[in-house]
Amino acid sequence: MSAKVINITMNGLPMEVYEGMNVLEAARIMGIDIPTLCYDEGLSSYGACRLCIVEIGPQDRTKVVSSCTYRCEEGLEIRTHSKRVMDTRKMILELLVCSTPGSKTIQDLAAAHGVITARFKPEHEDCMLCGLCVRMCKEQMMATAIDFAGRGPDRRITTPFDEASALCRHCGGCMFICPACSSRCMGPDADTTLCSSCLNLSPSCVEVYDHQQCWMPPGCGTCIRPEGDYLPATGRISEVKTEA
Q: How far apart are CA 109 and CA 113, in angstroms?
């Protein structure tokens, strides 16, 4: 039996999708980029990070939902990049980057969405409770060696009874998918909460060497120069000094 086709509206554009498809999948079909952290196509949706939020409903009665867990329904109206949504995403990214400033994954997301200030105190947590490792272990590795334990501020990911699990296959899948395990480019001892180095998308090295020195897309803009200070907090190169 074929899936039922329904009609929705996304950012004012009508589109047809299959019933039961989540809003995030529908957006990706349209080529609309919605940031995610705890979502992976090979795993079940969890909706923990809230980065993929969108607005749904008529203009005068909208509500914010996570697009990875909300299913499309007939006549659904969706706005993926309203001011309310984008401001909320930035605040969420500020919280995430202050929670785990050592994560390159989160630093890259923050830079891509223009987060240049962090108003919260850095906590340097080792886990952001996104649940990717738990779902990877259970759904892909069929091991269920780790899971959530505790509630509220005591919530954590651990093995049964906090002891070595006989179900663990030492496959490394949990570390492979963990965004907190991706170390930021500036290393673990960086003295800034927010990297922001990728905000400068122009290859600054061209002005110095007459040629781009690396090819990490889209160009980090944080390379060396003959003289002057390197600005790790903004990733921008100040005035280049040249001899007269």
A: 6
